[in-house]
Amino acid sequence: QYMAFFEFNSRLEAILTKAYIYRVIRTTAYLLYSLHVNSCLYYWASAYEGLGSTTWVYDGEGNSYIRCYYWAVKTLITIGGLPDPKTLFEIVFQLLNYFTGVFAFSVMIGQMRDVVGAATAGQTYYRSCMDSTIKYMNFYKIPRTVQNRVKTWYEYTWHSQGMLDESELLVQLPDKMRLDIAIDVNYNIVSKVALFQGCDRQMIFDMLKRLRSVVYLPNDYVCKKGEIGREMYIIQAGQVQVLGGPDGKSVLVTLKAGSVFGEISLLAAGGGNRRTANVVAHGFANLFILEKKDLNEILVHYPESQKLLRKKAKKMLKSNNKPKDEKGGPGDPLIIPPKADTPKLFKAALAATGRKGDKGPLARLRWRLKELKAMQA
């Protein structure tokens, strides 16, 4: 039963979300049981000496358990106010009780402190980070609006995730365990990205471990138009809005959880792949970010997947540009616009002028048209 009791405690703590509450209750139960054992020992000592034989022993009146328990509490917690022992047996028993009480009480207090300290360790770390950041911003006289946004980020990140950086939580785990957690959390989202479909499964597993979670506040810019794209974004929770139009503030589309954007930026071979629109967070948004340098480090070990990804990226770029070309959208302006076709009768007159060797206005016009044709070519 002794071994089963501690195994039960271990298994119960493993499944509880707030195990510290159970630890406090268990430590309190240990204290109450110790007092119970001590009250039983006091009743045995009183019976051994004789009930009511001295002022120190239990006199046999009233509820014996309550009165003995009261004596045990005062002794173990060393409150004092007890009658002095008379015989040698009583003196030795009282001394042992005092020593046991001091030891047991200090152990109980230490356990309570450890349990409460472990339960509030995360909150203490969060408060320390918040205080250090506020002190830094006040020292450099950061504007109050920026300070408020930083505080909001700290508060929301802590309350939504229970931590500020989840990578710190997983860094001590073995590689295989981190991969198992990443697969359960992120694989369903990443596997739906069109760019990565058909790639090596192990490559996607390696990529899952490189994803970084970032929280954006309402109206925060995720990326801005004209920036060089160096990362891909996967929406874990929340929404983002793609802005465009003449003023750059019109909402073109709203992307929800599970959506992906910026994936082509990862495979821009020659660089210079700039963002074409502003993307802002619509409310609080939690995004996964995969950086280009991380993907390049992974693709070194998967050459076939690298070829496939580059091929898909080219097709995506062509499909993005194709509608504009078909509709005759605005392109690069021509230096010399194409001229209209020359009427057939006018062509015949110019040809006749050339055969006669005339040097009049038609000949000069004919020479000018030849010059324009050469420039057009």
From TrEMBL:
Membrane topology: Multi-pass membrane protein
Keyword Nucleotide-binding: yes
Listed name of the protein: CNGB1 protein
Biological processes annotated in GO: retina homeostasis; visual perception
Molecular function (Gene Ontology), one example: cGMP binding
Reactions mediated catalytically: K(+)(in) = K(+)(out); Na(+)(in) = Na(+)(out)
Keywords, comma-separated and alphabetical: cGMP, cGMP-binding, Ion channel, Ion transport, Ligand-gated ion channel, Membrane, Nucleotide-binding, Sensory transduction, Transmembrane, Transmembrane helix, Transport, Vision
Subcellular location: Membrane
Annotated ranges, domain Cyclic nucleotide-binding: 195-299
Organism name: Neodrepanis coruscans (wattled asity)
GO cellular component, one term: plasma membrane
Keyword GTP-binding recorded: no
Signal peptide start-end: none
Region of interest: Disordered: 317-340
